[in-house]
Amino acid sequence: MRRTRLTLALALVAGSAVVGIPAAATPAQAADGDVIQLVAMNDFHGRISPQSGGDGSLVTATGPDNVYGTSDDVSQTVGGAANIATTLAQIRAGFAPGAANSFFVGAGDLVSASPFNSSVFRDEPTIEVLNALGLDYSSVGNHEFDRGQEELLRISGATDGEASDDVTACEGVTPEVDGCFTNSAGVPFEGADFPYLAANVIDDATGESILPAYEIVTDARGNKVGLIGVVTDDTPNIVSPDGIEGLTFLTEAQGIDQAVTDMQAEDPTVQAIAVMIHEGGTQTTGGYFNGCAGALAGTPIAAINAAITTEVDVIISAHTHVPYNCTLPDSAGNQRLVTQAGFYGKVLSDIRMTVDASGEINRTPVSAGATATNVPVLQGSPDPAIQSIVGYWEGRAAEAGSVPVGSQTADLDRAYRGGAPVRDAESALGNLVADAQLAYARDTDSLGGDDVDVAFMNPGGLRADINCLSTGPADPDGNINFGETFAVQPFSNTVNTVELTGAGIEQVLEQQWATRSGAASFLQLSVAGLTYEFNPAAAAGSRVDPASILIGGQPLVLTQTYLVAANSFLIAGGDSFAAFVSGRPGGATVVTGANDVDAFNAYVAGISPVSPPALDRAVSLDPAQTFDDDGSGAGPCNPPVPTTPGGGGSTPGTPGTPGTQPVANPGNGIAAGNLANTGAATGQLTALGAGLLLAGVVATAAGYRRGRGVTE
């Protein structure tokens, strides 16, 4: 049964004006049955505050050429939790049957890979915001496992005591240090009010799903809808293995079909079924936020749609950060609605399903029995109650986040193409992070010191740019602060080293091309101490010529052993880079270093003002497929007169020397009461910031052992 509560979003509906929302078409047979509304979002990633640049804009119309994807497209500013509240209320105000017959659902990745003002508080701010918005249910996403399964169970308050959830909201953490923070109402963290669903994530100890597989919800008129939650079965390849030890990830279709069987065995009257699935697809050229260019052909979500039972009526998808509004034929040839709301709260999907007297959604070869409209979350009319919550957390984060780290001469960006970040091109920011990890490892004897040869950085580990433009009086043009560097790498990984053979390094480079989430992909690693050439048109497994690989300017020797630095996720084989494990010589072991953000901060402080590194480390030999950054992510920059490199000038307080160990330890010149590598006394930070940086990162990365194999 549905958990009922009077939410802020529901209370706001009556007084909300409907502004700028496309009308969601109601199926033609609406008069013959009740219409039920699902409003969906996905991949929010803790974006409680409005975002700037590409993260805060959406192409909403074509320009004079009437073609999407060209330079004259019209964009609007979108996103922010307070604007989500306004848009949600407007959508519900335009739904004639009323908010009591509407459910707000998510499709995972609501937390983690978040900005500083949420991530530094273990994403408890995002949970408070989602509770206030009245989120009813969500599937888990792969990022819900970033901090380990125990942390997922900790934040999932609504499921306490259900399935494998035996962890309460303040268990296993130190209040106000690494969890259980006081919220905007003055109350310690209580967890999510909404249940997370995880039908295909099996606890090996029980043989059952780690969280509930499904929920049966009932609207105000007695209509029932079955909601199922599943996550991509690629999750083991894209999260830290330690955090999911003891879990088995079934295929999405297995999880869905079993949940349907179990649900209808429990209540055979449940005929209308929607799946929230953290997996997705992409549109082809010419697609837009409410379109379906290419019909998702060849994508993981299209394959899942073809594989699952015909009992499922609606698929709410996620993961690929691409909005779309599609109908695809199921295995019986009947149309089925498949939607996605993009990412970062830019869009909400307004889904309307018509049920007949038996509770069934009548789908046919020409009708899905349901319709959807993707509604832009326009900035400009933020809900004051939600904004108050956001403002509380922004204030708490401001002191810690404003600590200066260094300075820059231009934007330090991820790779961009057509105004959007991409992961198949060399990036200045990725190269800078790789440089930082190599410098840190070479200056740390326990990691190998001067014997470290090369460093790698995965593009998916770069979650934000470091923009040069001022954000306010305390952040002038060219300033780099701790909040910005934390946002780039928010996962609390460590910088580790391990030996690889030359052949192993060559295989790592070849594995940039792999099948991930059921589709071919190219993830271009950032490298330091290494250059190479590649031919993307060559056959798989032979795209990188070993003779072109130079380490320290010398040709790679396949039989030689090299010492490699990378973050803890990548070095464990994450993102399907299995050669980081299989390419090790016999007896090689991983050596663990300090937090990746601390290592980066030390490097930035030591070389400020920082200029973007050259993009010349990986060169395509195919002029038709250069995989270059087109520079479209760069913004304006008017920094003050540069100071002397290495000294940090007046910008970063009293920075550490380049490459010093980024932890407070005897012998490295950093006192125990100081924030590593900024020289700032921890008294300048909140107790939270100091605790997370100096004490909490190991617990954050590993989770808390509760009998399911998570590293202690």
TrEMBL record:
Residues 652-668 have a biased composition (Low complexity). Residues 623-668 are annotated as: Disordered. Keywords: Signal. It holds the Pfam family Metallophos. GO terms for cellular component: outer membrane-bounded periplasmic space. Residues 39-323 form the Calcineurin-like phosphoesterase domain. One of its GO terms (molecular function) is 5'-nucleotidase activity. Transmembrane segments: none annotated. The keyword Signal applies. Residues 421-581 form the 5'-Nucleotidase C-terminal domain. One of its GO terms (biological process) is nucleotide catabolic process. This is Unannotated protein.
